[in-house]
Design brief:
The chain is mainly beta. It has one helix at residues 2-13, and strands at 16-18, 26-27, 32-36, 49-56, 66-73, 78-81, 91-99, 107-110, 114-117, 134-138, 142-146. It has one domain: Immunoglobulin-like (Sandwich), CATH 2.60.40.2840. Helices cover 8% and strands 36% of the residues. The strands form 2 sheets. Strands 2, 4, 5, 7, 8, 9, 10 and 11 form an 8-stranded mixed β-sheet that branches. A 3-stranded antiparallel β-sheet has the order 1-3-6, with no helix packed on it.
Length: 160
């Protein structure tokens, strides 16, 4: 139907921009910013509030996905993660997940894998852009992939 097509299109556009890939990392024990492709008019039943989790492919680094922020407004388009919200061990293989605030098994988007560098490492340059694809998922129309690019103004918060 037309409605499911429109919902599927909006969901396919929803993805993480930063961090992700080898060019966009976070720094341990520091403020870091996540940036996503927010939608000005998201579907009425989804994506208004988001629940952010962090995961790692190595269970010795992170045994399971951990919540870092609840109730993020989709329309904010970015959010600064404080040192207290995400205490992460320097390593590769991290991903961010946006899930439903009431049911974290409903995954809306997963970032590209990224690295958390040691305290004192430089943030990515503001000219850095994603190198691959992030995934967005919809329960109504399956899943898709989307890639994004950033401008220097989008990632300015990473250097804060």
């Amino acid at each position: 139907t037309l409605v499911s097509t429109l919902v599927g299109t909006a969901v396919a556009d929803f993805h993480f921009i930063s961090p992700g890939g080898s060019n966009l990392w976070w720094v341990a024990q520091s403020q870091n910013t996540l940036v996503w492709s927010c939608n000005d008019s998201p579907p009425a039943t989804a994506y208004q509030l988001l629940y952010a989790l962090v995961n790692n492919t190595n269970p010795t680094i992170l045994a399971a996905a951990e919540a870092i922020v609840a109730n993020i407004q989709n329309s904010d388009c970015s959010h600064t993660i404080t040192v207290q919200q995400a205490v992460l061990t320097p390593a590769t293989g991290y991903t961010l997940i946006f899930a439903d605030t009431l049911d974290q098994t409903k995954i809306y988007a997963t970032s590209e894998a990224f690295e958390v560098k040691a305290l004192g490492a430089a943030y990515p340059p503001t000219s850095a852009t994603p190198t691959g694809s992030a995934t967005s998922t919809s329960s109504s129309s399956g899943s898709g992939t989307a890639s994004g690019s950033t401008s220097s103004s989008t990632n300015k918060a990473n250097s804060a």
